Each structure stands twice: as structure tokens, then as C-alpha cells.
């Protein structure tokens, strides 16, 4: 667990360093994700000779632990948010309508495009 | 008139309410309880553990007269884990790499259409509902995860407080409506469902996707990361075109 957590923190640190060092517009943790995927891919290629033995890697255990409770991590920010809704005054309803409407539109459009293209790919592969 | 007993209680309260221990424990305890309730409700989307915990904690803070700053002293340790948790998405991405590679074209198309729709639709709706420029600007990056939405807010000169409010509210909205909406549309492809959830409602939508299915979670995390990057590039352009 500790080793896995260390790996996650290390890659976040690397990501922040790269993002800030190179002045990239991409946030550090996102670069950390890219670096971690690259590291895991390199490791898998290296270890191809030895059959995939043993249980999950420490970093997998730590990642699964964090992702299983991902929602928890948004609670502190959410509590701050819930206390500031009164800043909206009488516009609460209009804001809520715009927000819910746009979220529903985004979900429907995104899933529709995904399915359409995915079906197109399957059809051309089947031919 | 104060008895020694109540004085001691008061001292205890002063100690607890100023130490990070109390609010850290309350935050985790509230979430575990909310998860238990959500499980009892069969994972019904309305019973969202994030929403339940936030409501419970807001009520407790109000009842005890605690301000947000003292609460955050304790809760910041949980908040900090958002960074490593984002990196952890790399593990789930790598594990599902075969699925992601298989769907690379749908992913690219859904991202290139979904990201501008997320931003444009809210700006247009806000205008249609007669909302002012301050609120409209802060709504624009609403589908992006909070920390990155704040960076975008800085760039487009939106109010950071409002931006955070709208991003969290969008995350919860998406997490609550995604399941009934996708069921109504008859979409059974969990990759597509997860991708839409992560794109429209960032980390909270991703948390919901992980609650349902590991592959859906991987696609949601991927959508969240890609959308954050694309919206950061796109939002200033969209707003320059739409806002006078």
C-alpha cells in the first residue's frame, strides 16, 4: 500500500515538474497519468518473458483503493460550494435549468456520437 | 450559570472543533454512511453518496456554527488526495488499454463533438434564460474537473467561486441523471456510457461510472482528462466568439 501510494505521488510530482518546468497548459496530474501509463507499458514489455505471475502491483492496489472511493475526494469542495449558493440570489432557478439542460444535452450528444462512430467502425470492419 | 461539567464539555468542544481530526473523521464517516445507504438503495442514481455526504456535512456545520475554513482544516487531507487519484486513473486506463485502443475512433469523435457542446450549450442556454455575463462566463467550463475549471476561469476572467460552484453542481447533476438517461436511450455500451459521464460531469461522473463498472470508469476517467485539456484550449475561443 505504501509503495503504491509512493508511486502515485511520485508520478504526480513528475507531472507537476514537467508541466511547470515546460510551462505547459496541461495540469500536472494529467501529465502524471500519461507518464504512469508509459511506465506501465514499458514495464509490461520488459517483463514479457516472465509469465504474468504474482498478484497485482502495489500501484494497482493503491490506485484501486483511491478510485473505489473517488467520490469522497469531492466532498470537501462540495461542502464549500453548497454554502455559497445564496450568492446566486433570485437566479438560482435559471442557473439550475441552464446547468441541468446543458449536462443532459452533453451526455446525449456525446454518447450518440460515440455509438454512431463505433457502429460505423464495426460495420466497415465486418465488410 | 456554568457547572464544571459543562465547562469541561465546552473545553473539549473547543479542542475538537479546532483540531483537523474531528472534521477529517466526520468527512470520511459521512461518506462511508452515505455509501452504505446508496448500497441499501441498490445503487439507485438518485441516492448519490457524494450528494448525501455534502448535505449531511452542511447540516452538521450549520448546527454547530462551524465556518468552512475550520472544516477545511481537517477536510484538506481528503481534498489533497484528488491529485494522486487523478494519477491513479492511469492504472485503470492501462488495464483497459485493449478496450480503449479498440474504441479510439469513437473516443476521438465523441471528444471533438462533446467538448464544444458542453461549453456552447450552457452559454447559449444561459443567454436564453437571461443570465448576466458574470454567471454565463463562470458556467462555460462547468463540465471540467474543479481544479482545471479554476485555471480556465482565470484565463477567461470568470469568478473563481462561481466557477467552482457550477463545476461541482454539474458533476453531481451528471452523476445523478446519467443512468436513467442512458437507460431511456437504450444504450448498453458501457464504454460509451462511461465516456459520456466523464466528459459531461468530470470526476463526480467518473466516480459514478466506477460505482457501476470498472471499464466504464476507465472510459470516464479518460474522457475527463481529454475534455479538461480540450476545453482549456477551446473555452477562450468560444467565449471570444459568443460574448460581446
UniProtKB/TrEMBL annotation, chain A:
Membrane topology note: Multi-pass membrane protein
Endpoints of the signal sequence: none
Keyword Cell membrane: yes
Keyword line: Cell membrane, Membrane, Transmembrane, Transmembrane helix
GO cellular component: a single term: plasma membrane
Compartments it resides in: Cell membrane
Source organism, top-level taxon: Bacteria
Transmembrane segments: 29-46, 66-86, 92-117
Main location: membrane
PANTHER family registered for this protein in UniProt: HOLIN-LIKE PROTEIN CIDA, HOLIN-LIKE PROTEIN CIDA-RELATED
Name of the protein in question: CidA/LrgA family protein
Provenance organism: Hansschlegelia plantiphila
Organism lineage string: Bacteria, Pseudomonadati, Pseudomonadota, Alphaproteobacteria, Hyphomicrobiales
Automatic annotation (TrEMBL), chain B:
Protein's membrane topology: Multi-pass membrane protein
Highest taxon of the lineage: Bacteria
A Pfam family it matches: LrgB
Protein's UniProt name: Membrane protein
Keywords attached to this entry: Membrane, Transmembrane, Transmembrane helix
Subcellular location: Membrane
Main location: membrane
Listed GO CC annotations: membrane
Transmembrane feature ranges: 12-34, 46-65, 77-95, 107-129, 165-185, 218-242
UniProt xrefs under InterPro entries: CidB/LrgB
This protein's record includes keyword Nucleotide-binding: no
